[in-house]
Design brief:
The chain has 2 domains: about 5-250, P-loop containing nucleotide triphosphate hydrolases (Rossmann fold), CATH 3.40.50; about 260-385, Immunoglobulin-like, CATH 2.60.40. Helix content is about 25%, strand content about 35%. The protein has helices at about 20-35, 75-80, 115-125, 130-145, 160-170, 190-200, 215-220, 240-250, and strands at about 5-15, 45-60, 65, 90-95, 100, 175-180, 205-210, 225-230, 230-235, 260, 265-270, 280-285, 290-300, 305-310, 320-325, 330-335, 340-345, 355-365, 370-385. Helix 3 packs across helix 4 (about 130-145) and helix 4 crosses helix 5 (about 160-170). It is globular and about 80 Å long. It starts with a strand and ends in a 22-residue tail after the last strand. Belongs to the ABC transporter superfamily. Pfam families: ABC_tran.
């Protein structure tokens, strides 16, 4: 087993909400440090834990996915790991060179050129000028900044700063690489190139990857930690479980999701037949068929509308659409003069395990003259024993194998 490169033991950091009080506490802490009476694990008035009792070990070839909502403590933890701030309690041991992308443009001198910043960053990492010279062309080519490398960094766009920062951090091949959300700024082509590079250097590097993009996290992480209010709410090698918990913390299901209402038609009720919801979620097995019933009030309308359904994943990305061209195939019951009950069957659901939302749209014709549209008209949770982070889990099997020796 590889020797640990990052060892974090019971790490804690507290901040004060009030500047004046914080300065006073600072003076008191200096005196307590001299007298030896300092108790760093007690909170005082107006203080809070930004990071509390965090511990983990990271070896070469491992990637820790660090997730959590804004203010959970991720950036504070990374700044401690990178040596920018000191912890109030606990211990951090890092062996080898550390490359960090924790803020856009961090580590760059804005008045220096891109080329000069490459040499500065390389020197900070401990490389000699000769070593940097040998990597310079590869860094510039990876960043795609050949025409702008001698321009001051202060004139770079945010995307150019990300490309240069990642190129320096990756091409210098540090022992520990820390990445904090900066890849969200880059274009798709560069992001794909970055992930290919991470795949290449990971066997020789320990990576700490912070992102709100869960597919990105699942793409590279070998373990995961979810922070909430500075504490590790979930920690372990079960990356899919940690990501599931992340989504669950953001799911409320109580807000109004009507995005368009002409006043002519209104969706009054919707449900999955034969399934009892739990917290507005309908649990259905992968590969099963379900019937969804929609009750529609015709307020100032005398014709049956065209109905279509769109399926969105947990990050509100469209993954599927159900369009019923022949409205005559609907099982339509007229309950009274202005209420319709429409039942639609979705067969052989092959959506991957997870939560999905169905958007209901009623219009005059397909994608024309919309009367009513509601997101999350139905929320489904697909049940399966395999966790996949692609939107579909197809039912497949081997039918034949031919071997030639």
């Amino acid at each position: 087993m590889e020797e640990p490169l990052v060892i974090v033991e019971n790490l804690s950091k507290k901040f004060c909400k009030d500047l004046k009080t914080s300065l006073w506490y600072g003076v008191k802490d200096l005196w307590s440090g001299v007298t030896g009476n300092k108790n760093e694990r007690l909170l005082r008035d107006k203080e809070f834990w930004a990071v509390k009792d965090i511990s983990f070990t990271l070896r070469r070839g491992e990637c820790l996915g660090l997730i959590g909502h804004n203010g959970a403590g991720k950036s504070t933890l990374l700044k401690i790991l990178n040596g920018l701030i000191n912890p109030d309690a606990g211990k951090v041991t890092i062996k080898g060179r550390v490359g960090a992308l924790i803020e856009l443009g961090a580590g760059f001198n804005p008045i220096l050129t891109g080329r000069e910043n490459i040499y500065n960053n390389g020197a900070i990492l401990g490389f000699s000028r000769k070593e940097i010279d040998s990597k310079l062309d590869a860094i510039i080519a990876f960043a795609e900044l050949e025409d702008f490398i001698d321009m001051p960094v202060q004139n770079y766009s945010s995307g150019m700063k990300v490309r240069l920062g990642f190129a320096v951090a990756a091409q210098m091949e540090p022992d520990v690489l820390i990445i904090d959300e900066v890849l969200a700024v880059g274009d798709l082509g560069f992001v794909l190139k970055c992930f290919k590079t991470i795949d290449t250097i990971l066997p020789r590097t320990a990576v700490i990857f912070v992102s709100h993009n869960m597919p990105m996290v699942s793409r590279v992480a070998t373990s995961i930690m979810m922070l909430e209010s500075g504490k590790a709410l979930f920690q372990g090698n079960q990356v899919s479980e940690g990501i599931d918990l992340y989504y669950q913390r953001f799911y409320t299901g109580q807000e109004s999701n009507v995005v368009f209402d002409s006043g002519n038609i209104k969706l009054t009720n919707s449900f999955v037949e034969g399934v009892q919801p739990f917290e507005n979620l309908y649990d259905v097995e992968w590969g099963s068929s379900i019937k969804i019933t929609f009750e529609i009030r015709l307020i100032d309308h005398d014709k049956v509308p065209n109905i279509s359904l769109a399926v969105y994943d947990k990050e509100q990305r469209g993954v599927a659409e159900a369009i019923i061209e022949n409205q005559d195939l609907f099982n339509i019951d007229k309950i009274d003069d202005n209420l319709l009950r429409v039942t639609i069957q979705l067969s052989n659901l092959q959506l991957s395990k997870g939560i999905y939302y169905i958007t209901f749209t009623a219009s005059e014709k397909l994608e024309n003259n919309v009367f009513y549209k509601e997101h999350k008209a139905i929320s489904l949770r697909i049940i399966h024993n395999r966790q996949m982070w692609t939107p579909f889990l197809l039912d497949a099997k081997i039918t034949e194998i031919n071997t030639t020796w």
